[in-house]
């Protein structure tokens, strides 16, 4: 669907330079999704893996030629609807560290340096993805989601980083009780969409 060089605005790598590759197609359908235009894969042109990788290298080196490895974040839509071994191999060969953000609802594929699992109630994550996750990032839309977040935390390994993130449209309402919850449940951290606060892609 799109690709761009910016900073990672969320989760463990928040604030780090990152090249985003957003793939079209999603079968999860979160009603609060802020990229609904990604859902229909057929609405977007097709590119070869070589074209995607070459563009990533060109756009990053045009800005900072000596900074590799840069994080390449494959996202969506739901990126695991695609088979990702060849794409991630090409990105790693080009010098990128490969990260994915996924709901975990489709089978895991690809060679990953970091897996961010952001599970959704609308389509539960597969156990294999939960067990492979380096980071669990749960979007909080209401207080009941905190209970659901704890259920998801039981599915990942003890080494997995845990984050609660307010849904952007409800951030003013839900952030205060997320903060209170983290104070009494310090195994969680707070993730904010800082790219939206500072108005970058």
Automatic annotation (TrEMBL):
Family: Belongs to the radical SAM superfamily. 7-carboxy-7-deazaguanine synthase family.
Taxon lineage: Bacteria, Pseudomonadati, Bacteroidota, Chitinophagia, Chitinophagales
Its biological purpose: Catalyzes the complex heterocyclic radical-mediated conversion of 6-carboxy-5,6,7,8-tetrahydropterin (CPH4) to 7-carboxy-7-deazaguanine (CDG), a step common to the biosynthetic pathways of all 7-deazapurine-containing compounds.
Record-listed substrate binding positions: 7-9, 22, 75, 201
Catalytic activity as recorded in UniProt: 6-carboxy-5,6,7,8-tetrahydropterin + H(+) = 7-carboxy-7-carbaguanine + NH4(+)
Annotated TM spans: none
Known partners and oligomeric status: Homodimer.
EC category: lyase
The protein's annotated pathway: Purine metabolism; 7-cyano-7-deazaguanine biosynthesis
Gene Ontology process terms (BP): tRNA queuosine(34) biosynthetic process
GO molecular function, one term: 4 iron, 4 sulfur cluster binding
Textual note on the cofactor: Binds 1 S-adenosyl-L-methionine per subunit. Binds 1 [4Fe-4S] cluster. The cluster is coordinated with 3 cysteines and an exchangeable S-adenosyl-L-methionine.
InterPro entries: 7-CO-7-deazaguanine_synth-like, Aldolase_TIM, rSAM, rSAM_sf
Binding site for [4Fe-4S] cluster: 26, 30, 33
Cofactor field: S-adenosyl-L-methionine; [4Fe-4S] cluster; Mg(2+)
Keyword terms, alphabetized: 4Fe-4S, Iron, Iron-sulfur, Lyase, Magnesium, Metal-binding, Queuosine biosynthesis, S-adenosyl-L-methionine
Native source species: Filimonas effusa
HAMAP family, sorted: QueE
Database matches in SUPFAM superfamilies: Radical SAM enzymes (SSF102114)
Protein name listed in UniProt: 7-carboxy-7-deazaguanine synthase
EC number: 4.3.99.3
Residues involved in S-adenosyl-L-methionine binding: 32-34, 77, 118-120
Residue span, Radical SAM core domain: 13-201
